[in-house]
Each structure stands twice: as structure tokens, then as C-alpha cells.
């Protein structure tokens, strides 16, 4: 009688383990990478000097990007 109980518990456990193993059939989706943002500290440290190449005003220490260069003054001054 004890042997039957052990066998029944063993079969039940193996059945449950096989169910959990088969349940993970979903396909993994590729992870989307998120663009890193600079903290205010690094933004201030990485500002470009006058004459350096730039793409917009936020990259220059003077906050003036003209013709892809960091300028000291605007054209109207």
C-alpha cells in the first residue's frame, strides 16, 4: 500500500513538472534599445567650446550653434 502512494506522488510530481516545462512555449521578442539620456551634470561637462562642430544650440557652451559651429556672438551683434 505504501508503495502505491509513493508511486502516485512520483507520477503526480512528474506530470506537474512536464506541464510547467511545456508551458513556456512563447517566443522571446527582441528587446528595444532605449537611447541613453545624459544627466544635467554630464550635459554641463560635455558642452563644446567656441569653434567646435555642433548640431544644435544645446551642444555649445555659448548656446549658439551657427553653420554647424559653436559661435561666441550672434550675427546681429
Any key phrases for this structure?
single chain, 77 residues, mainly alpha, two-stranded antiparallel sheet, 2 strands
Nutshell version of this structure?
The protein is mainly alpha-helical and 77 residues long. It contains two helices and two strands, in the order ααββ.
Describe the structure.
The chain is mainly α and 77 residues long. Helix content is 35%, strand content 5%. The protein has 2 helices and 2 strands. The protein has helices at 2-22, 40-45, and strands at 65-66, 69-70. Strands 1-2 form a two-stranded antiparallel sheet. It is rod-shaped and about 95 Å long. It starts with a helix and ends in a 7-residue tail after the last strand. The mean pLDDT is 77.
What is the CA-CA span between the terminal residues?
Answer: 101 Å
Radius of gyration: 32 Å
Mean pLDDT: 77
Based on Cα principal axes, name the global outline.
rod-shaped
What amount of the residues lies in strands? 5-15%
Total helices: the number is: 2
In which order are the strands of the major sheet placed?
A: 1-2
H/E element string? HHEE
Q: What profile does the largest beta sheet have?
A: 2 strands, antiparallel
State the helical fraction.
Answer: 25-40%
- Unreliable segments of 5+ consecutive residues: none
For this entry, what is the oligomeric state of its chains?
A: single chain
The count of DSSP E runs of length 2 or more, i.e. the number of strands, is: 2
The class by helix and strand makeup works out as mainly alpha
